[in-house]
């Protein structure tokens, strides 16, 4: 009798495993529209320890907008002479910029 029960239980388990193998995604996973940035606070509720570690880390700070409040360097049109090359640090509409005076067309501007 016990042996027969074991066989039935084994079959039921196999049936359950096969029954969960449906590869069709549920309809509620279909996106409503284009993906957009939801912000880091959206992750906090489920990832509290990771969020606390990330807050204030270089990973968080590196992705901040490059503004007067967040950038530590002096980008007020100052220059630095180094090995015969002059580099200019400036601020443009599109961010904080630096470039060699001899190749100012290659100036690099960063927004964050
Ligand atoms: C509703 C809860 C929830 C929210 C909100 C959420 N996550 Fe998760 N996340 C999970 C769960 C559950 C897992 C799977 C954990 C596991 O498998 O151990 C996971 C896994 C991850 C992993 C993989 C971790 C690993 O070790 O492989 C990353 C990375 C991650 N989440 C990032 C994010 C980010 C970034 C956000 C915010 C944009 C976010 N999550 C928001 C629940 C959530």
Give a quick precis of the structure:
Helix content is 30%, strand content 20%. It is α+β, with helices and mostly antiparallel strands. Strand 2 and strand 3 (95-100) form a beta hairpin.
Order of helices and strands: HHHHEEEE
SS class? alpha+beta
Number of strand elements? 4
Helical stretch count? 4
Strand content: 15-25%
What are the distinct ligands in this entry? heme C
Query: Mean pLDDT, rounded to whole units?
Result: 80
**What's the N-to-C terminus distance?**
71 Å
Strand order of the largest sheet: 1-2-3-4
Gyration radius from CA atoms, angstroms: 29 Å
Helix % is: 25-40%
Described by the principal axes of the CA atoms, the overall outline is elongated
Largest sheet: 4 strands, antiparallel
List unreliable stretches of 5+ residues: 6-20
Assembly category: single chain
Explain what this protein looks like in three dimensions.
The protein is of the alpha+beta class. It has a domain at 66-112. It is built from four helices and four strands, in the order H-H-H-H-E-E-E-E. Strands 1-2-3-4 form a four-stranded antiparallel beta sheet, with no helix packed on it. A hairpin with a 2-residue loop joins strand 1 and strand 2. The longest helix is centred in the first third of the chain and has 18 residues, at 2-19. The protein is elongated and about 65 Å long. The model is unreliable at 6-20 (pLDDT under 50). Heme C binds at residues 38, 42-43, 45-47.
């Amino acid at each position: 009798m016990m042996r027969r029960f074991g066989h039935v239980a084994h079959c039921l388990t196999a049936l359950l495993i096969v029954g969960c193998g449906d590869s069709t995604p549920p309809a509620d996973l279909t996106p409503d529209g284009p993906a957009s940035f939801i912000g880091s606070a959206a992750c906090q509720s489920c990832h509290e320890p990771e969020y606390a570690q990330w807050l204030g880390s270089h990973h968080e700070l590196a992705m901040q907008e490059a503004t007067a409040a967040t950038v530590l360097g002096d980008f007020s049109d100052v220059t630095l002479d180094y090995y015969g090359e002059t580099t200019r640090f400036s601020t443009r509409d599109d961010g904080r910029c630096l470039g060699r005076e001899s190749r100012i067309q290659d100036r690099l501007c960063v927004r964050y």
